[in-house]
Each structure stands twice: as C-alpha cells, then as structure tokens.
Amino acid sequence: MPPSSKADAAERSGNVQVLSRAIAILNHLAQADGGGSLTEIGTAVGLAASTTHRLLTSLESERYVRFDAETKLWSVGVQAFIMGNGFVRSRDLVRLARPHMRALMEASGETVNLAIEDQGAAVYLSQVECREMMRTFARLGARVPMHCSGVGKALLSALSQALLTRHIDRHGQIRMTARTITDRGALMADLAAGRRRGYAIDDEEHAVGLRCVAAPIFNEHGDAVGAVSLSGPMARITDVRMAALGSMVAGASFKIMAEIGGKAPLDWEEIPSHAHPYAV
Amino acid sequence: MPPSSKADAAERSGNVQVLSRAIAILNHLAQADGGGSLTEIGTAVGLAASTTHRLLTSLESERYVRFDAETKLWSVGVQAFIMGNGFVRSRDLVRLARPHMRALMEASGETVNLAIEDQGAAVYLSQVECREMMRTFARLGARVPMHCSGVGKALLSALSQALLTRHIDRHGQIRMTARTITDRGALMADLAAGRRRGYAIDDEEHAVGLRCVAAPIFNEHGDAVGAVSLSGPMARITDVRMAALGSMVAGASFKIMAEIGGKAPLDWEEIPSHAHPYAV
DNA sequence: ACACGCATTTCCGTATCGTGGAAAGACTTC
DNA sequence: GAAGTCTTTCCACGATACGGAAATGCGTGT
After folding, report:
1. Same domain assignment for residues B235 and B100
2. How far apart (Å, rounded) are the C-alpha atoms in residues B62 and B84?
3. Alpha helices in chain A (DSSP H)
4. Is strand C in 7 Å reach of the CB of A21?
5. Which residues, listed in sequence order, are joined to residue A74 by a DSSP beta bridge?
6. Residue A41 included in any domain
7. Distance from CA of B142 to the nearest CA of A (A)
8. Among A45, A183, A226, B193, which has the highest number of CB atoms less than 10 A from its own CB?
C-alpha cells in the first residue's frame, strides 16, 4: 500500500482552509497547558496575529475557546468540552463499560481506565479514580504509546502477527523509562506472555513507579476495540497482588464483553472461571 | 446569495462564516446521539448538501468527526474528545461559579455560598456576602454536617438510595437545633421533596434563626460535584419569598452547570441507580 | 432484471468572504 | 515619558468557499 496516501489526504485539497487553521489552533490549545497568548498561538500554527485573533474571537463567540481578560490567555472553552463528550456518548462502549469499571475500582481499590486505539496510540476515554491519596494521573483524552502502556499492550496483544509487525514498523518502540521494552523480539514475547496470562502487564515501562495490568475488550467480530486497565503505584501493585489484580481486570473485560455482545476470538486464551472473584 | 431568512448572518460581525457553520454542525452532532445522515445534518443547520458534505469531510480529515461507512452516519470524532478534554485542565468550579454567585447575590440580596462534599461533610469553598447589616457568617473552609444544611441536603438529594443509606449509616443525623431532622425516614422524605421542588431547604435545622435554599451542581456525568445556597435570617427569608429565592438558586446552579459543562441527570427527581458513581 | 427514487459525492464558475499588512490601542518596562 | 511588546481594529485585494447541477451509488418495488 502507498505509504503517503493517508498523509496526503490529511493536509491536501478538499479541506476547507479556515477550518484546518481553526482546528490547528484548537489542537494547539488542547496541548498547551494553561492556555497561550495570541502571538504564541499565532507563531505556533504559522498564522499572522490578525488572522489568529479573528479565528480566536470567532471560536470564542461560540465558547469553543475561552479568553481570560486578566491573564490575556486563550484556552479551550466549555462548548468544546461538551462537544467532545458527544464522542463518548456516541460510543456504547464507554457507557456500557462504566458500571463494570466502577465495580472493578471498588473491588481492587485502584484507578480503572478505559482506552481505545487511535492512530497508533492508546487514548484514555474513561476513568474511575480510586480514593487513595496517591493515585495515577492519566488524563482523559491523553495519548500514550502502545508498546509501553498496559492498555496499549493489551490492544497490541490482540493483533495478528502481520498487523503487529506493521504497527512496530510504523511507530517503533520509543524508550520512556529504563524498563521500556525497546526490542522487537522482547516485546513480541511479552505480548505472547500476556495472551497466555489473560492480561497485559506494564511494569514501570511508561513511567517510573507506575504499574498497570490490562485486558483487551473484543467486539462481536473478535476485534479488540478497547482495553481496561488497573493502574497504581509500585507500593500498592505489589508482586503478590499482581495475579489477583490481573484476574480482576480480565474478569471485568469479560463482563464488559458480555455487555456489548463481544467475545474473544477462538485463539484467545479462555478466561478461567476463578477469574471473577467479585460478585456483581 | 442565501435567500430570505438569514438571521444568523446579522447575529455577530467579525465571525468567520465557515467556522460558525462548521461549529453549528459539530454542535448538532454533539446533541444528536448516534450521529446523523448528510441531508439530516444539512437541513438541521440550514446548509446545502454539498456544503455540508465539504465541511464534514474536512472535519473528518482532522478526525473531529467520524464517518461510519456502513450506516452512512456522521458522528463526533476522537480528536474532538481529545481537544475538549483540554478544557478540564483549566476548569475550576470556584472561579467559573463566582460571577453567577455574585449575580445571584445581587438579584436576591442574600449571601451566596458554594460548597462541595468532603469526607461526609459539606465544606464552604466560596462566598459572596450580601450588603445587609445582619448576615450569615459561614466561614470559608468551614465544615457543616450534610443532613442539616442547605448545601448538604442539596448534595445528598442527588445521591442514589444506596449511597444515601450508606452516608446516614456512617455519619448519623446529629441534632443541632430543635428543628434538625434526626429521623432517617423524615430526612429521606425531605430530600425527595427537595428533588421534586428543584432546591433543598434548611429551615433552622443547622442554626436557630437561619434559613437556606440550595441547589446541587452536576458535572458532565450527572454527579453532584457541589452546591450553591442562599442563606439569611428568618426575618428576610420569609415563607412568602421562599419559592422565588428557591428558583433563583436553581437558576444559578443551572447557569454554573452550563459554565462547567455539566448537566443534571435526565430527571433527577428519581435518579436511576445506574446513573450514579458508586452505586452497585 | 430494470427502472425509479432517494441519498451521497463530485464539479465548477461566481462573488463572497477571509487574508495579512499596517496602524491604532493598551499596557509594561526602563 | 519614551520605547518596546503585545493586542485589537481596519481595509483593499484576490483567494477561496458557496451551492446548483450533474454524476454516482444504493436500495426497493414492479
């Protein structure tokens, strides 16, 4: 397949110019914590200050961006948030998974996340935070690399050999911590181990001190459409608890699949019955 | 030239047209759960099919909208979600609520409070004092019991039956005045009445001579994250004014919700247990 | 199978609408 | 109070988005 076909489509003709520009601004605002100043935004997206200003005020009138008169900074507005939540509402997965995520949090005492794959990265869509003082901070909407996150590895482990290879070719295995698996063979072995186990493990591969266990969620065709994870500090996700927590996530993903009418593909490991320790 | 009825054209000058239109489409998509067809969207926002199509494909290339080739339906895309969540980072209940609290104080002439729940008690986070000589004295950061304060009862009234029971089991109903509701059944009945009414009432239940009306503030999940109240002496918060003041707080809480992107659960008079964070 | 109707997608000439330089404000710093 | 930085307004030019129309696709009824 032609490697450039997708890239071309993204920035070539057929696109309404103003729109692309406005979107570039919005994307920039979403990244930049705490908002940005007019000129800062303008230079970042390569537009004249006047143009940037016009677009920003336009967006502001629709409350897609907000302008703080005191600090003179622009940031993302409510309406953008409301609209973005429309995405979640349009996906049954999030709505149907939520009760099970809650139950999983109660049972495990750890933060529970739901993520999907988007353009080679895992994106957090939903989260139930635990009550502990020390907890993880994965922001909703955040993108994390697939090869070094619990959810990501759960998703990868459900791919065919061919698709997996293509993913790695395309996105590589960037090092995030000393424990990140940067070797292709090692990653494949790790994913295979995860498949056998029924859940993937992220052992400080993404952030130091952070551990995750995660399981993929399959749809009715046996495609992994998402993943659930439990994440917490090393101090709490100990070696001893690992297996128990692992079966809990696997159990939760199983229940979510029942909810959305999905099922693991035939070659996926059967989830043992002892994997559902908690009652509904 | 777009014919006769173009009210939105004269609406605001300085608005980039394409942008307003694209945003109209996005807003429409965000409302309509499950997406819409091209023509449906086009007519909804008053645009020709070809124009609508061009805008949609443009937005799609940036993944702000998603097109399901099977159903031929358009819906909100991932990137919109990712971008919208940038809002959460800069969102701050206290700051966003403040202008509405001030307006409420001006309209009612009474002190306005904002509180959240923390470990089973209501905590005052923000306040706009009225100009009267005689006024209430709730200090910022003060903790008050949930069952006998306006803000507390507003927060409780948004809980599921199960959680409410748990709260009462855990914290009881300490008597503060002769009017404090110390009976579990009576409290539940009172909360139900508050839900039906749209605002909670504290009638000298916390301190003699002090009356409050309060309404809960919901976030995007429909969880009550705080409450606003009007409080003042019996002498001013008379039976006659009660209803008017009640709808004022309810109105203010509504406006604050619009500000933070929250909304009350569909009919929060009878909150279904699944709509709640920790309900089993 | 064929035609009909309805919906989506592409095309293109026109004039509308967005562009960015320039200049005027606003505010800060030295 | 001058000099500098950043924001906001203005405007003439021409690039660009508009929408009617035509082409394509898709499902349905005969």
Report:
1. yes
2. 14
3. 5-11, 17-31, 38-45, 49-61, 78-89, 92-108, 150-156, 161-171, 184-197, 239-260
4. yes
5. A36, A67
6. yes
7. 22
8. A226
Strand D CB-contacts below 7 Å: A 16-18, 37-40, 49-50, 53-54, 57, 67, 72; B 2, 14, 17-18, 21, 47-51, 54-55
Which domain, by its residues, includes B32?
Answer: 17-84
Minimal C-alpha gap between B179 and chain A (Å): 34
Claim to verify: residue B102 and residue B204 sit in the same structural domain: yes
List the nucleotides on chain D closer than 7 A to a protein CB: 6-10, 16-21
pLDDT given at position B277: 36
Is B57 among the domain residues?
A: yes
Tokens found for residue A112: 């529970």
Among A35, A61, A83, the domain boundary falls at A83
Q: Is B88's CB within 8 Å of A139's CB?
A: yes
Residues A206 and A139 in one domain: yes
B218 three-class SS: strand
Asked whether the predicted pLDDT for residue B72 surpasses 70, the reply is: yes
Which of B13, B83, B220 to probe the A interface (max A CBs under 10 A)? Answer: B83
| Residue B14 CA distance to nucleotide D8 C1' (Å) | 12
Distances (CA, A) of A10 to A5, A22, A259, B63: 9, 15, 35, 9
Q: What is the pLDDT of residue A220?
A: 86
| Single-letter amino acid, residue A9 | A
> For A74-78, A83-87, A228-232, B263-267, which range has the lowest pLDDT when averaged over its residues?
B263-267
User: What span, in angstroms and rounded, lies between the C-alpha atoms of B110 and B212?
Assistant: 10
Q: How confident is the model at residue B29 (pLDDT cuts 50, 70, 90)?
A: very high
Is the distance between the Cβ of A24 and the closest atom of strand C smaller than 7 Å?
A: no
Query: Is the Cβ pair A16, B55 closer than 8 Å?
Result: yes
Q: Identify whether B3 is part of a domain.
A: no
Among all residues of chain B, which has the CA nearest to that of A51? Answer: B16
Residues B113 and B56 in one domain: no
pLDDT for the residue numbered B224: 94
Prediction pTM value: 0.86
Bridge partners of residue A214, in order along the sequence: A200, A229
Same domain, B177 and B96: yes
Query: Does residue A164 have a pLDDT over 80?
Result: yes
- Domain membership of residue B11 (yes or no) is no
The C-alpha atoms of residue B194 and residue B154 are separated, in whole angstroms, by 8
Both structure tokens of B92: 């701050």
Chain A neighbors of B12, CB-CB under 8 A = 61
Q: Quick one: CA dihedral A273, A275, A277, A279, positive or negative?
A: negative
**Whole-number mean pLDDT of chain A?**
87
Q: Which amino acid is at A234?
A: M
In this predicted structure, what is the pLDDT of residue A146? 97
- A109 and A139, same structural domain? yes
Name the minimum distance, in Å, from the CA of A196 to any CA of chain B.
Answer: 31
Domain count, chain B: 2
Q: Which residue of A has its CA nearest to B52?
A: A16
Q: What is the CATH number of the domain that holds A73?
A: 1.10.10.10
Tens of pLDDT, residues B106-150 = 999 999 999 999 999 999 999 999 888 777 777 889 999 999 999
